[in-house]
Design a protein that fits this description.
The protein is α/β, with parallel strands linked by helices and about 220 residues long. The protein has nine helices and five strands, in the order ααααβαβαβαβαβα. The chain is about 55% helix and about 10% strand. Helix 2 (about 15-30) packs parallel to helix 4, helix 3 (about 35-55) packs antiparallel against helix 4 and helix 5 (about 105-115) crosses helix 9. It is globular, with a radius of gyration of 17 Å.
Length: about 220
């Protein structure tokens, strides 16, 4: 691995966002391929963050700090990825369902997915089924990711999936759900394609669903 790319990798793990920004710029100025910076510096670092989380060595604060450092570097890298015509892993629309204002989990999932090379359209919190459907219909979306932290708002996940069915767009995309009160059984019950208990496994789930559908 290029020494600069290795520094980007290790500084993302340490959550040093200013250093990551500087090193990404330095790597670009040194004519290192933007795709190499993305794949070996950023995506590999966020995959390692996921492993550390699953091993119990990292917790949510460490994940958040690492994800923010990755995002800072990605902001500098993105225009160069566009110029180099580097394709994203897939496009994800993400949001917290209607009536629910919790966003820490959603934000972390969004950043971890972005760190895995996905393009993210974050609709925020308290998102109505109609808004989700509109976002999915207005772009070529691969995955719809729904979040809820309250038992009183969970039913709006089902309402969103039903609205998507009625609009005729359910078959074209995969729907994943997450949030503290959810279970795999509930996800299946409401017609979702999968459930992830945390941000790290949301990435694994998203990738496996796209691979299974041949994308």
């Amino acid at each position: 691995m290029e020494p600069l790319v290795n520094e980007i990798f290790s500084n993302i793990l340490d959550g040093q966002h200013k250093v990551v920004e500087a090193k990404v710029q330095e790597a670009l100025d040194s004519s290192i391929d933007p795709k190499v910076i993305l794949d070996e510096g950023m995506i590999a670092a966020m995959a390692e963050v996921g492993h550390l989380f699953e091993a119990g060595e990292y917790f949510v604060p460490e994940m958040l700090i690492a994800a923010r450092a990755m995002k800072a570097g990605l902001a500098i890298l993105k225009p160069h990825l566009v110029q180099a015509n580097v394709k994203s892993t897939g496009k994800v629309v993400i949001g917290t369902v209607q009536g629910d204002l919790h966003d820490i989990g959603k934000n972390l999932v969004g950043m971890m997915l972005e760190g895995a090379g996905f393009e993210i359209l974050d609709l925020g919190t308290d998102v109505s089924p109609e808004k989700f459907v509109e976002a999915v219909k207005s772009a070529e979306v691969d995955i719809l990711a729904l979040s809820a932290l309250l038992t009183t708002t969970m039913h709006n996940m089902k309402a969103t999936i039903e609205a998507l069915k009625q609009a005729g767009g359910r078959d074209q995309i995969k729907v994943i759900v997450g949030g503290a009160p959810l279970t795999d059984q509930y996800a299946r019950q409401i017609g979702a394609d999968g459930f992830a208990p945390d941000a790290s496994r949301a990435v694994v789930l998203a990738k496996s669903l796209l691979a299974a559908s041949g994308r």
